[in-house]
Design brief:
Blueprint lengths: L23 H4 L4 E11 L4 E11 L5 E9 L3 H4 L1 E7 L7 H21 L10 H18 L15 E7 L9 H4 L7 E12 L19 E4 L3 E17 L2 E7 L7 E7 L3 E10 L15
Antiparallel strand pairs: 1-2, 2-3, 3-4, 5-11, 6-8, 6-11, 7-8, 8-9, 9-10
Helix pairs in contact: 3-4
Length: about 290
């Protein structure tokens, strides 16, 4: 059973508009999305206010709802709280994941490939994936099918594979074990690939708007070092330990181009792969107290 969070009532965050939510104890759990709703009741002596907040952690899609009620004239003394915790959505079977691939995978990869040599949105790597999923949604609705779940931060559906370069043992064959397919989404963090080349190359990629390097080539004697703080791409092919991808702000600075990443060349960092699923896999985040 999930433990209640310390709501830091002494700071009176709940009386502000908008409320300073989520509170510090919730932020420690990881990246999240949130929403809230205010209501109030008045009588002859005081005004009773009610705040309902909801937060969803995008790493596992678990959710917590908070209800706080208080009297406007004395919020700290009269505040009462309730919390409800909802577990992550249920795991999907291999059969269900295959159906998701059949429904979404080819369209996702084809949409991304149709954007080659262009700039999508602000030119960031994440924007290509987010725009792909949101632009495809109306077509699914028009045909009476469930639209794909939009990207939730750096989570792009159902996690099917998570790898760290420093994990013990060989990483070879992991793409096949996880059944990685065309249209899946690749997300990398603090990644470093060391690629032996026949000719020396050098190419610098500009930093993102947040000041992070999405990618950087470093010149070496016959060696190319590719480093990425965060990078997102669409898988368009799998061959052995090599992923072929369509990416933005990767091989083509500020634009959409093709790339490839080999497990055997991964020196550091984390690689995770998501299978895009239907939006109904998680409930809409609302501020209703049920």
């Amino acid at each position: 059973m999930a433990q209640d969070f310390d709501l830091d009532l002494a700071s009176l965050w709940f009386t502000k508009l908008p409320p300073a939510f989520p509170v510090p104890s919730m932020r420690l759990k990881g990246p999240s999305t949130s929403t809230y709703a205010y209501s109030w009741e008045e009588d002859f002596t005081s005004t009773k206010k009610i705040l309902v907040c909801s937060i969803r952690w995008i790493l596992d899609f678990s959710t917590t709802k908070v209800r706080i009620s208080w009297t406007a004239s004395s919020p700290l003394r009269t505040a009462t709280t309730q919390q409800k915790h909802f577990p992550p959505p249920p795991p999907l079977s291999p059969e269900a994941l295959l159906k998701c691939h059949q429904l979404y995978g080819s369209n996702i990869a084809t949409w991304a490939e149709s954007s080659l040599d262009t700039t999508v949105g602000d030119g960031e790597c994440w924007t290509l994936v987010h725009t792909t999923l949101t632009d495809l949604a109306p077509s699914y609705r028009q045909h009476g099918q469930e639209p794909p779940l939009p990207s939730q931060g750096r989570t792009h559906g159902y996690l099917i594979l998570s790898l760290c370069a420093d994990s013990p043992g060989s990483l070879s064959g992991m793409f096949q074990l996880a059944d990685v397919r065309r249209g899946d989404i690749l997300q990398m963090t603090a990644a470093h690939f060391k690629i032996v080349t026949r000719e020396e190359e050098e190419e610098a990629l500009p930093p993102t708007q947040e000041g992070e390097f999405c990618g950087r080539w470093r010149k070496g004697p016959g060696v190319k070092n590719v480093r990425m703080a965060h990078h997102t791409a669409v898988v368009v092919g799998v061959r052995g330990d090599v992923l072929s991808v369509v990416e933005q702000n990767g091989s083509l600075p500020g634009g959409v181009g093709r790339g490839a990443y080999c497990l055997g060349e991964m020196q550091a960092g984390e690689m995770v792969i998501f299978r895009v699923v239907g939006e109904g896999w998680i409930k809409p985040l609302d501020a209703c107290w049920e």
